[in-house]
Design a protein that fits this description.
alpha+beta, outer membrane lipoprotein receptor (LolB), chain A, 12-stranded mixed β-sheet, two-stranded antiparallel sheet, 14 strands
């Protein structure tokens, strides 16, 4: 990313935040029906869940944990892939701008409202808008102007498949998540491991999955190793996954300073799938209640 783009993102954050940084079934079948049982290897169970995750076209999910530069995070969201839309309520605390935000992505425009934003710049309106804005794509395509932490700019259904690139996946046991019986699996993922899994993929679908996993890994800015926990229900569908690892951060890139990578804060996020492939509608706020964030950011950048 070039310096003008980095500077513009920083200007967006300064305007928006006032200078801060910024299908899941139940039931209780017998042990023989549970993921990873009856002689099925953990790797096979994880691969089945990944195949099912790739069929998710819409998702209602919850996110909890800690993210670099933001601290504690709680969010609940619904998204659809075709056409791509997303709505989220997010609360961050501990670093940067504390408070609640509501975020919507519709027609490649992002809308933001809530107590965490700088209301003085809204001019009596309830929402900021910014475009072009993209959520749920690859590491170089997403653009939320630093409103969303990078680890939640991705599609969680795609992120949930990363354990397919791990070596030595192990079955931890059975656990109940939100009333759903699941089997818990655990493993570690590295960039080198994902590349090796891509090169060893037995077919096109598996290879494309690992290409996507490598992109997701880059988006998380993991320093070396990502620990992934995955909970799979009795229908071979992901119910929950957790990602933990040390991250890298960037410094510089503006005012003539070189862009460099430094040690970042730890990442620890849990995504819980609440419902899949159900109708999702996301509407843009009324235009008369929306302020143009881009104009204010450009003014802040040149002022």
């Amino acid at each position: 990313m070039g310096r003008p783009a980095i500077a513009r993102r920083a200007a967006f954050a300064a305007v928006l935040l006032g200078g801060g940084t910024v299908g899941c079934g139940g039931g209780s079948p017998s042990d023989s029906a549970r993921a990873g049982s009856s002689g099925e290897t953990p790797a096979t169970a994880v691969a089945k869940a990944a195949e099912n995750a790739e069929r998710i076209k819409s998702l209602h999910y919850r996110v909890t944990g800690t993210v670099p530069e933001r601290g504690r995070l709680e969010a609940e969201a619904s998204m659809r892939t075709e056409p791509a839309v997303m709505k989220m309520t997010m609360k961050a605390s501990g670093k940067g701008a504390d408070g609640r935000m509501e975020i919507r992505f519709v027609d490649e425009v992002m809308y933001v409202s809530g107590s965490a934003i700088d209301s003085e710049k809204l001019g009596g309106r309830s929402w900021f808008s910014a475009d072009p804005a993209v959520w749920g794509r690859g590491s170089t395509d997403n653009e939320s102007y630093r409103v969303l932490p990078a680890p939640i700019e991705g599609n969680p259904a795609a992120q949930s498949t990363m354990l397919t690139a791990a070596k030595g996946v192990r079955r931890i046991g059975t656990e109940t998540i939100d009333g759903t019986r699941t089997t818990h699996f655990k493993g570690t993922v590295t960039g080198r491991g994902i590349s090796a899994a891509r090169d060893a993929a037995p077919d096109k679908a598996a290879r494309e999955r690992q290409i996507g996993n490598l992109d997701q890994f880059m988006m998380l800015r993991i320093d070396d190793t990502l620990t992934v926990d995955l909970w799979i229900d009795d229908d071979d569908r992901t119910k929950q996954f957790r990602m933990q690892g040390d991250t890298r951060a960037t410094r510089g890139g503006t005012d003539g300073q070189p862009l460099e990578f430094v040690d970042g804060d730890p990442l620890d996020l849990t995504f819980t799938f609440l419902d899949a492939n159900q109708p999702v509608t996301v509407a843009a706020p009324p235009s008369e209640d929306t302020a143009d964030l881009a104009a204010q950011a450009d003014e802040a950048q040149t002022g």
